[in-house]
Amino acid sequence: MAAMEAVTLAGTPKALDDEAIQSLVATLRGSVLRAGDDGYEDARALWNGFHDRRPAVIVRASGTADVIDAVNFARDHELLLAVKGGGHSLPGYSSCDGGMMLDLSAMNAVLVDPGERVARVQGGALLADLDRETQAFGLATPSGNISHTGIAGLTLGGGFGHLRRKYGLAIDNLRAVDIVTADGVLRRASESEHHDLFWAVRGGGGNFGVVTSFEFELHEVGPLIFGATVAYDRRDASSVLRQWRDFNVTAPDEVTAMIAFGPAPQVPPIPENLQGVNALTLLGAHCGDPEAGERETKPLRSFATPLADLSGPLPYRILQSVGDAFEPPGPSYYGTGVLLEKLTDQAIDIVLQNTETAVLPGPSAWCRVWHLGGAMGRVDPAATAFAGRKAEYMVDIMPRWDDPDTAEPHIEWARSFARELDRYSLDEYYVNLRDTRESETDGAARAFGPNFERLARIKAKYDPMNLFRLNQNVRPNGR
Fold this sequence. Notes:
Blueprint: E1 4-7, E2 13-16, H1 18-27, E3 31-33, H2 40-44, E4 57-60, H3 64-76, E5 81-84, E6 100-103, E7 110-113, E8 118-122, H4 127-135, E9 139-140, H5 151-157, H6 164-167, E10 174-180, E11 186-190, H7 195-201, E12 210-217, E13 219-220, E14 224-232, H8 237-248, E15 255-263, E16 278-286, H9 290-296, E17 308-309, E18 312-315, H10 316-319, E19 332-333, E20 336-340, H11 345-354, E21 365-371, E22 393-401, H12 407-422, H13 443-448, H14 452-462
Parallel strand pairs: 4-6, 5-6
Antiparallel strand pairs: 1-2, 3-4, 7-8, 8-12, 9-13, 10-11, 10-12, 14-16, 14-17, 14-18, 15-16, 15-21, 19-22, 20-22, 21-22
Helix pairs in contact: 8-11, 11-12
């Protein structure tokens, strides 16, 4: 290998000689890839095609020892470092230009202990990997709702999924992590070990190290649950939203739902007559007995005359992949969103106005309104780094496009939409949906609210040089 031109943490160019590169190659069981090498293009690809980044070097780790060696190398050479688990980061934090990408995708093992109801999950595993193994025993843990999402990034930011109201966020079911911190030391963090670090990784993002393994508590879910999937006419939107809000006041914790606004995806199982039509799509689920689910979700299916009702019993693993049609890998995405303590009439009006057909910037511009609360809302906001526990609703705004020339109107639509909703939102927001670098003030301070100062102190303890900065970054001691 020839000398490598790289980028430092300070953003300055740095040449790494062949001896340094060869020393890295020699220590690893995994591989080192540079531009032109077989596999480099596939390894650097991210889910969000908007971010076309070219790392100077990609380390494809085969295990924890490789992670330790890669972190030590990046720190010693002060290289800009990105960590890729599933590569699903909306702002593209999973990669970088000119630095090192640490790719965990080969570390995707999931080990389930059905007796103890525990799953041990490596840092490169996807939701599909987790659900496949746990559902073999009729077990599950809260995660996301897109099967190709990485467990690591999802969990470290909080982790919203279909079980959020019954069993909380992903972080509420996390019992321990194995994490390589900036000094290259593997630590186990739990309630009894490195408690401060364990508190921080539950919602504080990738600020504190590379998690090589997660340990999750499991619950009896499935294999069959009841899914409520209903498409309503856009003209019924105002009435449907308000009826849904009223239903949610007394909804059992087993029921979760979101309402998506925008053109229906042009893929099965969406009926052909609805594909591309601007409608309301209610995506709900009941995580208990399917018969109880059919009964308790009946109001969700009768707010108006449905254009289509695809509700019925289905495997939990299928439920976990229903959203894949909305977020396929490859196109460009932009994401933002807000947490709402209440779904007020004003907030409803803003959602309706910004999702009118004439206002949408393209055929794949989406907004989703999630019902939260339940178990996730009964956790003390100071118990984990995730502070937005008062939120009863979340609105996420995620336009998608293929033509690079249409990026600006899509992004401006999302930003303008979010600014209008911000007047009625909590101060905190969900870091997996929003890029803190875009804030007019310190975005991380707002995102984490009252937990920010504690996070900044923990950051200074475990990562004083801010090696792990490609995330919703908390600077050491807040500086």
